[in-house]
Write a structure and sequence with these properties.
heterotrimer; A alpha/beta (about 400); B alpha/beta (about 260); C alpha+beta (about 375); B: about 260 residues; about 25% helix; about 30% strand; C: about 375 residues; alpha+beta; Butyryl-Coa Dehydrogenase, subunit A, domain 1; Butyryl-CoA Dehydrogenase, subunit A, domain 2; 3 domains; four-stranded mixed beta sheet
């Protein structure tokens, strides 16, 4: 037994609140007191549900890498088409914010040819660039990048390692975390350092975005997180920062692996990057069919924006997946987000709630979207949107 | 060939409701289901078994009632099911889970490919597949949208990334995590359902896997959840009603801001 | 009503329900619109072992019997009558082999049918011989170790899609009904081709096509039973398959009731849900009651057959007549409940109404069925059985 849930019988009033919170039905009421069965997975959901604080989770602590000697924040840089990806710049901004000036922010650059990338990383917040350079590191491949990142962590001993929750970060980081036998929290949307404990508090959505869980890695180092792109803010570039580059030695053995890249097929050119849009006009189930997206495209064009969609619309095949906003699609934070015929289920909300201003058009006055939109419009979208298009055209002559 | 599929029993998140005051899930009456993403992994394994020959063994970790997802896999055509169940596994995070599954794969022996779903719908971490690969020291291919070709020696996968598709040739044994683009999962067969009715999983405990108490459950898990909360509410602003034309005027004012109103 | 179905039958129902939900409902309107045979759905049914249920275990089947076939047909029909008949017509086509085939014929033809690798069709109707099955003109003339077939079969369900056909032809026209014989004809046999493809009112996903025989040489070993047994083979085949038509009718009716209930609980008029109006409630109650009666009769006949009853032509005719009349009434009422929406192709009930109509016509019109029932009653009375 490696942990234990204790019900403090003196405190328990037998109200049964914990039964409803338990995801594995491990709790029951026997003789007016809660009892826990072997099905308990120690998730701790019940602790919060208890109105009288009668539930305690006891940890039995084990081994793991020690906490001593780790300092600073390392950001694993992701390159796209040879440039740092927007998500990396966001991570540098977040790392600086976390450091509060007290921790050194290191950008780990894994590449074949660094060029002027270190100076760009510095402008966006890196105190220092650790460059692992080898011809075998031209493209992302799991095993070479794992070997390099693990070596960098062993050499540098950062307290915190961050990477973007992209297909690269979510491939690389779990492998490195398991290799180093430390903890990793996936797809975080909020990070902070607890001033009392110095622990990294990693917050992420779970259960389809219904719950925000805050996770710590308190017995091993480094603390590793992948961070959802589009959530953190990048800094204004600062040209006055001094570029400091160090090399991480890479030998041929590190870049050997059992996968080879046969080819890379780029996505067709007409794809859009919603995350770069300042204005997004999104359509949901209320659009009724693909033929009605024409007016959203027209409106988006008038406003200099792009067209997005809810999962319902994408699942119905009305609009392709790259335009999906939400938990299982893109996270966006445009200046203006216009939700048209979207009910505003949590799955969609988590992808767009950081937008500066949210507009919602919906026929149903009880639609959840109105509980968080800045500007709600109750009406038939098939009348309101054409009227809006006319109005904008009229004003512009 | 010998294929393993790692699956998970999850609450149907579409049915989950929230207690906003306490920031917890209301689990009353929420059904437990086979993680939908895992069905694509299972289908992929079944297809390659059907074309290359061999067996498909499904492994899950969980309480005794997690047997239900193995039974479902059997009804779809899996050959065997193993349930990793032990009080000691309670509280496992993705590290401890990955290690237990990896040990089970070792114990099964001579496995060629481990298939995993892209992620589970409850945790959404997508970490177990790479964790299993790291524990076994096997190569991994994640986000596989299509498995093009497979022989006893290697597999050619299309890995879907943000800006395109990587075509990777990977030596076996390997761990693959499968996207929904890869296939359409089959409906259970009658013979599968008949077999599933009498199916009893192989049960392995932590000790069966040679895992020490330090490596399993809460002790073997570097991360732990400290709090849960519902997403921070953004408060709704003014709600406008009126004719479409009236609404259009208000919207245009807000959207165009300083642009001249003619 | 709880029919206390066995675990196997529940499994069949669940599998068909899942296939209906995932693979049939999303495409049924398109199949109907495009008059397109659901080949991919047949493959899915095959992979789920559904073609095995009416074939004995000795020939690669699961030997689940008539009730199993009814349960499967009903559940598929609930989603689409056209898809369901494309499935059920295989059992009809295989029935002559199952009932009268030789050991060699069974071993050769049944296993690929059980696996769903090949589809099957039954060919009796001709341009000049519908209800009067004894009036068929297709000739079969013995020529050494072959029979030469000449003639045209009309409105053959699964025509052009099946690989194995059971064909009734006249081997001795001088003997009338006693001069007919049954043959197994494989796709690709020289002299066998497909003719006109029909454009139907309903069940448009199913293939309905002419079969053309021009000096078609069929090996003599493909004769089913003996020369002159053809009419008997055909009648027994239809006796066995009629509960399947009844099940199809029950399923179509149930599908229409499902739609009507869902609509009536959503649609609001005069400020309230229309299912709060007594006029609508009475209609729903009558629809549900007649469906349950039809289902009970259909299952009872299927159980009678599975239990080994030697004679059930009257009962199977009763089930077919009753259930198909119920289907026509219930689907018409469902269109009525949906009102103007029910008449539009955006909603599935108008298709169900079109699909239901054929159940009153094929495998013996309901008028012929009533003659069969009456004849049996009179015969039983004369024999002192009543």
């Amino acid at each position: 037994m490696t942990g234990r849930l204790e019900i403090i019988r003196e405190k328990c009033v037998g109200c049964g609140a914990c039964l409803r919170s338990c995801p594995v039905d491990a709790l029951s009421i026997v003789e007016k007191k809660a009892v826990v069965s072997d099905a308990c997975n120690l998730c701790g959901m019940c602790i919060k549900s208890c109105p009288v604080d009668a539930i305690v989770l006891h940890h039995v602590t084990g081994g793991g890498a020690g906490l001593e000697g780790y300092s600073g924040i390392m950001v694993a840089v992701e390159l796209r088409d040879g440039r740092p990806d927007r998500s990396t710049l966001e991570l540098l901004g977040e790392a600086r914010r976390l450091s509060g000036g007290a921790r050194r922010v290191t950008a780990l650059l894994i590449c074949a040819e660094p060029g002027d990338i270190p100076s760009e990383l510095t402008r966006y917040g890196a105190d220092r660039v650790l460059a692992a350079v080898h011809p075998g590191l031209e493209h992302y491949l799991t095993e070479p990048f794992t070997a390099v990142l693990a070596a960098a962590i062993r050499a540098d001993k950062p307290e915190i390692v961050l990477a973007a929750a992209t297909t690269q970060g979510r491939d690389l980081m779990p492998r490195v975390a398991k290799t180093l036998e430390t903890g990793l929290t996936a797809d975080c949307t909020e990070l902070r350092i607890d001033p009392d404990t110095n622990q990294l508090m990693q917050t992420r959505p779970a259960f389809g975005g219904n719950i925000m869980a805050t996770i710590v890695c308190d017995r091993t180092r480094p603390q590793m997180s992948t961070v959802r792109p589009g959530v953190m803010k990048r800094l204004e570039p600062d040209d006055s920062r001094r570029v400091l580059v160090e090399r991480l030695p890479v030998d041929d053995g590190m870049v050997a692996g059992r996968s080879t890249l046969l080819e890379f097929i780029p996505s067709v050119g007409n794809e859009i990057d919603l995350t770069e849009s300042e204005v997004i006009v999104s359509g949901g189930r209320g659009m009724k069919g693909p033929e009605n997206y024409g007016m959203l495209h027209e409106l988006a064009e008038l406003l200099g924006g792009s067209v997005g969609a809810s999962r319902a619309a994408v699942d119905s095949g009305w609009i392709p997946y790259p335009r999906q906003v939400g938990q299982t699609g893109k996270t966006v934070q445009p200046r203006k987000y216009i939700a048209v015929g979207i009910s505003g289920a949590v799955q969609h909300r988590v992808g767009m709630q950081s937008s500066d201003e949210i507009f919602a058009v919906n026929r149903d006055p009880d639609a959840p979207v109105f509980t968080f939109a800045n500007h709600g419009f109750v009406g038939d979208l098939f009348e309101v949107i054409p009227a809006l298009i006319n109005e904008i055209k009229r004003r512009r002559g | 060939m010998k294929f393993v599929v790692a699956v998970k029993q999850v609450p149907d998140t579409a049915e989950v409701r929230i207690d906003h005051e306490k920031g917890t899930l209301i689990r009353d009456g929420v059904p437990s289901i086979l993680n939908p993403f895992d069905t694509y992994a299972l289908e992929e394994a079944l297809r390659w078994r059907d074309s290359l020959g061999g067996t498909v063994t499904v492994i899950t970790m969980g309480p005794p009632q997690a047997e239900a997802v193995l039974t479902e896999a059997i009804s779809m055509g899996a050959d065997e099911g193993i349930l990793l169940t032990d009080r000691a596994f309670a509280g496992s995070d993705t590290r401890a889970t990955s290690q237990a599954i990896a040990e089970a794969v070792r114990k099964v022996g001579a496995v060629d490919v481990v298939f995993c779903g892209k992620q589970a719908i409850d945790g959404d971490t997508a970490q177990t597949g790479p964790g299993v690969a790291a524990s076994l020291d096997w190569p991994q291919v994640t986000f596989v949208g299509r498995v093009r070709e497979m022989t006893e020696e290697h597999v050619i996968c299309e890995r879907y990334v943000e800006n395109g598709v990587q075509v990777l040739d990977t030596r076996l044994p390997a761990v693959l995590t499968i996207l929904k683009d890869a296939n359409t999962p089959r409906v259970p067969s009658l013979r599968g359902k008949m077999k599933a009715r009498t199916f009893k999983p192989v049960l392995w405990s932590a000790a069966d896997l040679g895992l020490s108490p330090e490596e399993t459950g809460l002790s073997g898990s570097p991360t732990r959840v400290v709090t849960t909360a519902t997403p921070e509410a953004r408060h709704g602003g003014e709600i406008h009603r009126g004719t479409p034309e009236e609404l259009a005027v208000i919207m245009a004012d807000l959207l165009l801001g300083k642009e001249a109103r003619s | 009503m709880d029919y206390m179905l066995s675990d196997d039958l529940k499994a069949i129902r669940d599998i068909c329900g899942e296939i209906a939900e995932k693979h049939i409902r999303p495409v049924r309107a398109a199949l109907d619109e495009e008059n397109r045979f659901p080949r991919e759905i047949m493959d899915i049914l095959a992979r789920s072992d559904l073609f095995s249920i009416y074939i004995p275990e000795a020939y690669g089947g699961t030997g689940m019997g008539s009730l199993a076939l009814c349960v499967a047909t009903e559940e598929l029909s609930r989603a689409c009558g056209g898809v369901a008949v494309s499935y059920a017509a295989n059992a009809l086509g295989a029935m002559p082999i199952l009932l009268f085939g030789s050991e060699d014929q069974k071993s050769k033809y049944l296993p690929p049918l059980a696996a769903g690798e090949k589809l099957c069709a039954f060919a009796l109707t001709e341009p000049e011989a519908g209800s009067d099955a004894a009036g068929i003109k297709t000739r079969a003339v013995r020529d050494g170790d072959h029979y030469i077939l000449n003639g045209t079969k009309q409105w053959i369900t699964n025509g052009g899609e099946a690989q194995i056909y059971t064909v009734i032809a006249m081997s001795d026209p001088t003997r009338g009904a006693r001069g007919a014989s049954a043959f197994i004809v494989e796709e690709g046999t020289p002299g066998f081709s497909y003719g006109k493809k029909e454009d139907k009112m309903g069940i448009r996903a199913s293939a309905t096509r002419e079969l053309v025989f021009e000096d078609c040489r069929v090996p003599a070993e493909n004769l089913i039973a003996r020369e002159g047994m053809g009419f008997m083979v055909a009648m027994k085949t239809l006796d066995n398959s009629r509960p399947g038509v009844a099940a199809q009718a029950v399923g179509i009716a149930q599908g229409a009731l499902d739609e009507a209930l869902a609509y009536a609980s959503q649609r609001r008029q005069f400020g309230q849900r229309i299912d709060s109006f007594q006029g609508v409630q009475f209609m729903l109650a009558d629809m549900a009651t007649s469906i349950e009666a039809a289902r009970a009769l259909t299952y009872a006949v299927a159980r009678m057959m599975d239990a080994g009853s030697p004679r059930f032509e009257k009962e199977s005719a009763m089930a077919k007549v009753f259930a198909s009349d119920v289907a026509m009434q219930v689907t018409t009422d469902a269109v009525q409940i949906l009102g103007g929406y029910g008449y539009m192709k955006e909603y599935p009930v108008e298709k169900m109404m079109r699909d239901a109509k054929i159940t009153q016509i094929y495998e013996g019109t309901n008028q012929i069925q009533r003659l069969v029932i009456a004849a049996a009653l009179i015969r039983e009375t004369a024999a002192g059985m009543r």
